[in-house]
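Why do we bother with a discrete structure alphabet at all? Because it lets us treat a fold like text: something you can write down, compare, and reason about line by line. To make this less abstract, here is a complete entry for Phospholipid-transporting ATPase. Read it the way you would read a sentence in a foreign language you are learning: slowly, and without expecting to understand everything at once.
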Amino acid sequence: MAGGGKRKRLSLSKLYSFACGKTSLKGDQSQMGTAGFSRVVHCNEPDNFEAKIRRYSGNYVSTTKYNVATFLPKSLFEQFRRVANFYFLVVGILAFTPLAPYTAVSAIFPLIVVVGATMVKEGIEDWKRAQQDIEMNNRKTRVHQGDGTFKSTGWKNLRVGDIVKVKKDEYFPADLLLLSSTFDDGICYVETMNLDGETNLKLKQALEATAFMHEDSYYRDFKALIKCEDPNTNLYSFVGTLDFEQNLYPLSPQRLLLRDSKLRNTEYIYGAVIFTGHDTKVMQNATAPPSKRSKFEKQMDKIVYFLFFILFMMAFIGSLIFGVATDKDLDGEKMRRWYLQPNDSTVYFDPKKVGMASICHFLTALMLYNYFIPISLYVSIEVVKVFQSSFINNDIHLYYEPSDRPAHSRTSNLNEELGQVDTILSDKTGTLTCNSMEFIKCSIAGTAYGHGVTEAERGMGVREGESVNGWDQSKDSSTTKPHIKGFNFKDERIMDGNWVHEPQARIIEKFFRLLAICHTAIPDVDEETGKISYEAESPDEAAFVIAARETGFEFYKRTQTSVAVREYDPKTGRKVERVYTVLNVLEFNSARKRMSVIVRNEEGKLLLLCKGADSVMFERLAKSSRGFEEETKNHVNDYADSGLRTLILAYRELDEEEYKIFNHKFTEAKNSVSADRETLIDDMAEKVERNLVLLGATAVEDKLQEGVPACIDKLAQAGIKMWVLTGDKMETAINIGFSCCLLRQGMKQIIINLETPEILSLEKTGNKDAIAKASKDSVLRQITDGKALIAGPSGTAETFSLIIDGKSLAYALEDDIKHLFLELAMSCASVICCRSSPKQKALVTRLVKSGTKKTTLAIGDGANDVGMLQEADIGVGISGVEGMQAAMASDVAIAQFRYLERLLLVHGHWCYRRLSSMICYFFYKNIAFGFSIWLYEAYTSFSAQSVYSDWFLSFYNVFFTALPVAALGIFEQDVSAASCLKYPLLYQEGVQNLLFGWRRVNHWLGNGFYTALVVFYFCSTALQHQAFTPDGKTVGMDVLGGTMYTCIVWAVNLQMAMTVCYFTKIQRGLIIYCLCMLYLFFLAFGSLSPSMSATAYKLFAEALAPAASYWFTVIFVIIAALLPFFAYSAIETRFFPMYHQMIQRLESGKHEDDPEYCDMMRQKLLQPPTSVGFSARLAARTNKLRRKNKNQNQPQYS
């Protein structure tokens, strides 16, 4: 027994009568060898000659955007996709020609710095992804060496055909065919949380032909041939055959173990590698890391294109005027502008070659006017975004202490997008929920028990301003009893054996006994402490068994044919051990919506114990057993409205003859290999599950993460739509929808699925083409009916939700239907997509993003969410219990869903506000500066001579205007964080893009042109034709340029002071610093030798400073330049205020003497109407009560 380990002898195949059945070779297996089914695997022979010819991919996986070979070309392409960078590249090349009005180094150096810094940042971020890949590829697994021994090796070294051994709680390194396990019948338990988000364990079973090979030595001479389907994205299907010992065996999805799923409750398994690396199903569902560009960046490109157009027009007009003037310079031998000596000029000013001179002037003008296009804007934005990301990373309100996880902004490119989110697409398990169920309430014999409160109830209580009358064991510090996972129930009438004093004690006894018996859980006894824990297929089933234990019915042992329970005996007051023989298990599935067990008790009675959904259970009750049916229904509705998952419990006694007939037919159905095997089993179960006696109902909370309903409510108030994309069953997803207040009682549900009799009957025939056509027609019809329902007479008064399953979604996402589906979905208040594969999640996200043209945010926590996160405009990963795959693939990682509220409403709004103000101001100051150069050009017949010296041009964006605008992007706050959360409607400024739309951008561009006009014409007019100094000297280009430069720098810096809302000491200090630097530069640069300072020699000290007209001109021009902006801002704030301006006025308290005005603004800002969230649920309840009271108060006429 080399490495065989301890062998488990308990066979559970009898329990899983539905899951573990025989498979026929008929049907899909006949397609082996055809297109799409061509894969051939030689088990235990990875070096086989045929395997080498097929060249299957290795098991190395890469999720990076770049590699060593592609980093430079791809990264350069990314940088020069930016139109401004491409423009400056062209200008830099032209700067090496004689056309340049400045040196080549000064032109190309800023571009190298900007592009290089951004490429380094991209490289660092991608290296972090590469480190994660290295860690995963180097994980260890055990592979067969060919001599009956298994040796540890890295995942990346696996090849198709290898035999591997995986131990308990390890991940599967590739897609494997299950050969055997520690159980005799070859079963194992698999957790697929990383694939489909489900926490319940899946049962897998090896073929009978290989199940006996449970020791290492068996694989010394093992040989087999697998023929199966080619790699594809479908997680829930697999077709193939195994040729072993000259026998052919069919393979189904039940035999396949998928990469990134985990082995649970099984000591070890042996498997053959079928798919490796990027051929595995999880990687087939993955999408390549995208190069995301924010809408801001795309909008900036459009603005730059617009400025390019203006720049080209300015250069073109200037070249035309220059050409006309140059052509007239030489008229025969007569020289009009004789002082320019046109008869002895270069090609650039030669009147004999006017066309060439005009073209050269045009190219020179394009370089001279490049200050219209701010190259420093991009690098400034990069710096600002790094600071913004650090604020997110260091926000104490986004820090989750239990797991020691702060928020982590993994890429700073998309900060502003956080303030423009229109739709959130969320995973469920691990994102909205905690991956745990808690028994919280129950209804027995028409009486409600349990005082627990749910997150939804707690949220509604906070909204009403009242404390919730309830109990939560996990939050009650006064109780001495430790919190029991899965149990949050308290009621003194039930606990501590007090249920024996209740009027319906016999029914209560049967209720909890049913919970202790009707399940497929396995007890796990700790040998040291004697404590019992349970491993169940689903967390709610574990919660039921725990609830039974805590109320006196402890399930403690299971054999192949029996369960043992320690029960509280009302007669003796002690616990007694009773054994129940398990005869049959009728498992739960989505069509039956119920589960039953048939047992024989110690008295010999045959009992059928059943639990299921209310939609199928009430109709199966015996007519004589409906005494408290109405009370139970009312309780179930109340529980559902509180977001709880409910099940109805009932039983019946069977007579021997009836059971004998049933068991015979049921066994025949189980062993059938016909296409309608499942139907035969369902029919037999249907016949025995009738005439039931009602016991009551359970209410289990699929435990939401703390604060989820409140967060969803606040996001709904902000106008953000919410979609849930989950791999869970439809019933589970709907229950969570109620829990987190996306659904509520009274909301019309539009359910799209393929569970119609027509489709089910076609599936029995196996005609795939007919099934596909009928399924597509059915989905199209259901979508059309849904749209008609919404558009009907009641459409305006009612709220709708859309719920669709994975099969239907596959057809709804086809090209000819997807836009109709999107129209229907966008008309609904909430959308839930169930049974969604990772690929479908990504496709839905792409559809919403491309169809609405608005910003989408995807949030998830598992590997199955990676495609969705990468496809969305912003991907937010939850660093939770499912590992770090989603967090590492995300743009922002947070520890809890509730942190999304602050991330979007506070940081998102601030980042949007900061960057929009910063960019608009950047364009304003560059246009004010650049257009003043053009105006002087026009004044001098477009001589290609700048009014400012080269150093004045270079330092404008470096020393005199750069720091205040950077501080604006880093520190600006229009309102406080508390106000952002108090008035969520403020978030709509970003969604509607009010601060960076074309209207606002044009205002700032116009302000820049106006400032340049005022500065040039007022300065030139004020200083023209008069003595500037006491000795009578007039103004030259140097004095005019110095005066204009002073006015420009003062105007743009004071404009900054007027723009800032959050005027910090840093902001104030930087503005003062820039103005002081102006005069220090004048003095320092003017003191250099004339060969270096040129026209600026002693300019300020001897010309500007002593002249009173200089100071008066500067003051007058600054006032004239800023007055229109001041007047516009005052009028807008008073008569046409935006959201943030309303809040600023409320916070300032300046209008306390005008209460009507303040009330009007509060009404606009507070409690916007929503369709989802507990605010909407509370409003629906209030309206219902009002209508009820109104009807009661109406006079009755006989």
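What the structure line is telling us, in plain words: The longest helix spans residues 899-939. The CA atoms of residues 97 and 104 lie 8 Å apart.
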